[in-house]
Amino acid sequence: MALQDLGAEVRRLRETTDPAAIGLPAGRRRARGVRREELAELAGVSADHVRRLEQGRRHPSAAVVNAIARALRVGPAEYERLCALAGYAAADGRVPREAGAAAMRLLERFPGTPAFLTDAAWNVVAVNGAWMALGAGRSNRVARDWNVAWRTFSNAHREISRGDDHAAAFRATLATRLHSTFLRYPGDEPLAELVDELRTTSRSFDVLWRAPKAVAAYDDRAVFRHPGLGDIALDGTLLDVPGDNLQAVVFTAAPGSGDAGRLGEAVRASAGPAIIRVGQPGPG
Fold it and tell me: Which end of the chain, N or C, is surrounded by fewer C-beta atoms within 10 Å?
């Protein structure tokens, strides 16, 4: 009975959703609501999957439930009902954005290593002094500037460059992780706004969004253009901070290299604070 009830609810939501309200062309339609094929494309599943689900012949994963809720932009009450019918607990409404003491210690204990913390939507929540010493955040003016995905796909990271292979891998990592976050937090409106803007303004993001790539181990190499010391090439490492649902990005130089020397000089010349907490971010 539960599967039939879930299927009926999915069909009801699909048929009562205004296509224009979820970004689809309105036009003349033979039937009301959203077509099954349209819902399937938005949710990243097949039309047959949706059909079998509506007929009560398919039990969806939690990710599919979240994807359907996100695609139809259902409200909190409807989302909770969908999850209950599917036998899952509803995900928290918004992406956690607070950095706890353990996460902040990660920045504090490596004063000579450029590092920053982001939430699961790639909003930077804190940076250390070594990161600021590189001059990487000197052009940030508004909240959106502190979103790594936005700055990357809008080509606003003018002080940071990557080779073609590393740039492609970095973009794939950003899009894939953001896609997972999007499915996990269907009630986060700022996250939805960020994704909508990225898909509208960046064709490369939209391509990655429609077909997320399996991401291998994170292996980044970036060149920072320091205003006084020139180029500093650093290797990037991505660390998950599970308790706070955050991620840390840390950059290091090969010991004894010229890049390590220039990095050390930049850090020693910096008079900024050891840690900077970034203001509560908006949609990017």
Answer: N
